[in-house]
Design a protein that fits this description.
This protein has 135 residues and is mostly helical. The protein contains 5 helices and no strands. The protein starts with a helix and ends in a 15-residue tail after the last helix.
Length: 135
């Protein structure tokens, strides 16, 4: 989901004015935020067409703390550009490393069969099909 420049003009007053030498417009940042919210990808997984993921994340983080994102999404919904109800948005890329024993992998304790059956000993289970009796 991306918004057009005409749709962006309806919510532009909610966003702070850009100052100085900025590489990304507010429209590009809004479209990147909508992409992450829709696809649930990590920030590093943003397509290159949106620009540097770290720049987008930093601006989004600043906007979230200042309440800009709340005002923007309210205006997007009021103008029927976005027709979803957002109760909670969590954008996080935290990962926790698990010890190999905690992943449920099988332990390497299986006995290897040898070339000679006498060394292996008698098998513990033998399955033989039973013949059904003829009526």
């Amino acid at each position: 989901m991306e918004i057009t420049p005409e749709q962006f003009a309806q919510i532009e007053h909610c966003l702070p004015t850009q100052r100085g030498n900025v590489s990304l417009t507010n429209l590009q940042v809004v479209n990147a935020i909508l992409y992450v919210a829709e696809h649930g990808c990590k920030w590093r997984g943003l397509p290159k067409r949106f620009g540097n993921w770290h720049t987008i994340y930093t601006r989004m983080n600043r906007w979230a703390k200042a309440g800009v994102l709340d005002r923007m999404f309210e205006e997007l919904q009021r103008s029927q550009v976005v027709r979803i109800r957002i109760e909670a948005v969590s954008l996080d890329s935290t990962s926790i490393k698990v010890h190999p024993d905690g992943t449920g992998a099988l332990k390497k304790t299986a006995l290897r069969p040898s070339a000679s059956p006498e060394v292996d000993g008698t098998p513990r289970f033998i399955w033989l099909p039973r013949m059904l009796e003829q009526p």
